Amino acid sequence: MLNIAVVDDEKIMCDRIYKLLKDFFRENQYQYNICMFNNGADFIKQHSECNFDIIFLDIEMPGESGMEVAKQLRINGDKSLLMFVTNLENYVYESFQVSPFRFIRKDHIDEINEAIKSAVEFCMCDNYLLPLKTTEGFQKYRVADIYAFTSVGHNVYMCLKNDKVRLLSSLSELELQVDFMGFVRTHSSYIVNCKHIYSIESDAVVLDDGNKIPVSRRRLQCVKENFMNYSRG
After folding, report:
1. Are 183 and 144 in contact (CB under 8 A)?
2. Same domain for 221 and 157?
3. Among the residues of the chain, which ranges form H helices?
4. Do residues 197 and 182 both lie within one domain?
5. Which residues constitute the domain of residue 106?
6. Which of 17, 75, 151, 193 has the most CB atoms less than 10 A away?
7. Structural domains of the chain, count
8. pTM higher than 0.70 for the full model?
9. What is the spatial distance between Cα 79 and Cα 181, in angstroms, rounded to a whole number?
């Protein structure tokens, strides 16, 4: 599931952006969560807890400007996708230092449709850094480095090539979070990254590191279909 933040002191603009985003995600059947903020301070506080994937940020706001908020995020090492929403084109060059994903003009707000499509495609790529809640707080991991998620008793783990990391999320929550990133639920206790599936057997998937992950009978056809769709790109 994608976590989206919209930060703008103009309620009319916030509502307009929200509707465009909601229509896009519903049309494309993506899981999403959108939070609205009318100032930078409230957003920064919530971002430390939620770790938003994509942030739509007005540049001119009372208190901290959008540019100041963006600089604070980058200083803290945050790599969320930033979308500046403004009519102030004189900020374009200054914005380069915080590496925005897009610069959207308020008088052409429908450009959000193309921008969010590109952002989702970027999030689906192997190099996307997926924010996950670990025992040490939120950490980001490359999607390509994740082999699977598994639950053992009451604990949930992320499986990397040579390591396991305990997560503070349920498998159901993780399934929603990664539903557009090429992962598939193979079993009540496993979610697997299709990138690392080498072959599919009648009761298991074989990963490219040689490990076998069980597949329940009722999920087998769905696993095959998801893997075929992933392989076709």
Report:
1. no
2. yes
3. 11-28, 40-50, 66-75, 92-95, 112-124, 171-177, 220-232
4. yes
5. 2-124
6. 17
7. 2
8. no
9. 18
